[in-house]
UniProtKB/TrEMBL annotation, chain A:
<dbReference type="GO" id="GO:0022857">
    <property type="term" value="F:transmembrane transporter activity"/>
</dbReference>
<feature type="transmembrane region" description="Helical">
    <location>
        <begin position="53"/>
        <end position="71"/>
    </location>
</feature>
<feature type="transmembrane region" description="Helical">
    <location>
        <begin position="129"/>
        <end position="147"/>
    </location>
</feature>
<feature type="transmembrane region" description="Helical">
    <location>
        <begin position="26"/>
        <end position="47"/>
    </location>
</feature>
<keyword id="KW-0812">Transmembrane</keyword>
<keyword id="KW-1003">Cell membrane</keyword>
<dbReference type="GO" id="GO:0005886">
    <property type="term" value="C:plasma membrane"/>
</dbReference>
<feature type="transmembrane region" description="Helical">
    <location>
        <begin position="220"/>
        <end position="242"/>
    </location>
</feature>
<feature type="transmembrane region" description="Helical">
    <location>
        <begin position="299"/>
        <end position="319"/>
    </location>
</feature>
TrEMBL record, chain B:
<feature type="transmembrane region" description="Helical">
    <location>
        <begin position="289"/>
        <end position="308"/>
    </location>
</feature>
<keyword id="KW-1133">Transmembrane helix</keyword>
<dbReference type="InterPro" id="IPR001851">
    <property type="entry name" value="ABC_transp_permease"/>
</dbReference>
<dbReference type="GO" id="GO:0022857">
    <property type="term" value="F:transmembrane transporter activity"/>
</dbReference>
<dbReference type="Pfam" id="PF02653">
    <property type="entry name" value="BPD_transp_2"/>
</dbReference>
<feature type="transmembrane region" description="Helical">
    <location>
        <begin position="245"/>
        <end position="269"/>
    </location>
</feature>
<keyword id="KW-0472">Membrane</keyword>
<feature type="transmembrane region" description="Helical">
    <location>
        <begin position="159"/>
        <end position="180"/>
    </location>
</feature>
<feature type="transmembrane region" description="Helical">
    <location>
        <begin position="211"/>
        <end position="233"/>
    </location>
</feature>
Amino acid sequence: MSHTSTVTTDRSPALAALSWLLRNHIWVFLALTIIVFSLASPYFLTLNNLGNILTQGAFIGILAIGMTMVMIDGEIDLSVGAVLALASALAIGLQDHMGVWPAVFLGLMSGAALGFLNGSLVALSGMHSFIVTLGGLIGIRGLVFVYTGENALMVPDFSYTEIPEIYLGPVSLTAIIFFGLALLFQWVLSSTRHGRETYAVGDNIEAAHDAGINVKRHKIINFTLCGTLAAVCGILLSMRLGTAEPNAGRIWELWTIIAVVLGGTRLQGGFGSLWMTIGGVLTLAVLRNGLRLLNTPNYVELMVMGSVLILALVLDKILNRREAT
Amino acid sequence: MEQRFKRLLRRHGLVVAFLVFLAGVAFNADAFLTPGNILDVLRQVSITGMMAVGVTFVVLTGRLDLSVGSLLTLLTVIVVDQHNVAGPFPAIVMTLIAGLCIGAFNGLLVGFVGLNALIVTLAMLSFLQGLVLFYSGGSNVNVENAQDTWFAVFGRGEFLGLPLPVILFLVGAVIAGLVLQFTTFGRRVYGVGGNETASIFSGIDARWTVFWTYVISGFTTGVAAIIMGSRVMGAQNTIGQGYELTVLAGVILGGTSLLGGSGSIWRTVIGISMLGFIQNGLLLLGFPYYVQWLVTWAVIIVAVWIDLGAKRGRIFA
């Protein structure tokens, strides 16, 4: 017995490092993809391109923040892509009537309201959030088409598109907003009562309820957050493009779920963090950017994403089995 | 009497509400309840219906299949393209085999490796869409000799006054229903969905059961692709985009539980037909096309909520 114990103490720093890596394999994967693409393309590892990656990743990233919160709760929100499209359409479409900032504000409010609606339906009815937000995904997209009259809305004054054109070195305001929000909500998750309750609810909802957590109110808050963040993403997108297409953000909910799951947050709930999600978002952004720099056709991106996601799941399965034993 | 009526309403409230809707539309649009229009609606739902029959098996085990939309695109492209290369019969065989294989791959990952069904089929949604673009090179394919091929029969043919796609759909649904009700496999599907652990302890190999449900889902999507290719006589690269949502909406609307173990094929047939009639009715009433999506949202929420509330005995959770 004593012999084995000395062996483990000898190995413990290495083991500790290994077990950290196993739990945070997304960062290993991110480092690998960065190395591969730096070797494959001379344009990849430039300050300009890295800045681009951050900006491109930030849109899915902002969605992924809300999705992570909801997923740790053990729920899912499939409607974020449609909410994003509605917020961006309102933010541009209402400018004619009331000016820029009130329109942006109403766009944000639409996201909050739809998130609140999703959350309330989940909490009050006891339906699975997959069904509620699947309905939302279809219905809210229909709302977008009805509102925009099936046309792309053009911003009346193009100074609107210059609002997010603020850079800190190569890092755009959009990316800064993403990282700021991610850090803020990581703080919420790890250091506030609401954050601890999120893990508790996702881990064991009955126990959380018995421990006196107001589960319904809690879920409504997280869905509202998720909807609001989707609206933030939609408004930033409308600023970047200057138009609001009715099809904007289509299947972005899938990219978002991919990013979050890639990071290591579990669909079953109770486990995950925004650090992981940042890793997943960056990996996804690096993959997409790198593949485009290499001039690969569109289908490679789709196939790589699918394969990577399945690989990540298999890896997660194997690693966790090893950790458990 | 009143008791029985209440119980009937509680169990089939959805169908009653649907009949009220039908009556309402028929009152305002004369063309709605004519045989021609009804057949049109059934023809439209035959493709999603065929897919939904297979997906019902998957959902009954408590799993999901989100890849059927992309799979429909892929298989439609394959059947149309191979029709030009190898002729109609080999094209059909190849399409069905491809559907079976991809279904088996899904089944392998979900059933045997034990990965999360939502994520696996989501990944397959993306992967298969890539495969479509790879296969077609990004261009749309068309049946070259559309005039003189018997392939058109699946989408456009008629038998005894009924459109052939509708017959295919109904025959598929009846066979699937019989399999679920009267075979060991069917009972295993319900068993695995109802309580997986208990089913394993009673000697059911849940892995194989789940595997076969995905194979079935791949097969019915293959049949749907043949109907689709035959009706359109061509295939765009996005032809099946979003179909997985309609299919799931139909299954859910019918009252099959996403948790598994409860539901049936006839419920799916009702759910998917309801969606078809609602969409058709709204168009006949002159609403803009996308209003039907809004109504679909409301109908899904209300229907599932009522269903859940009836089982629970009270409305709120």
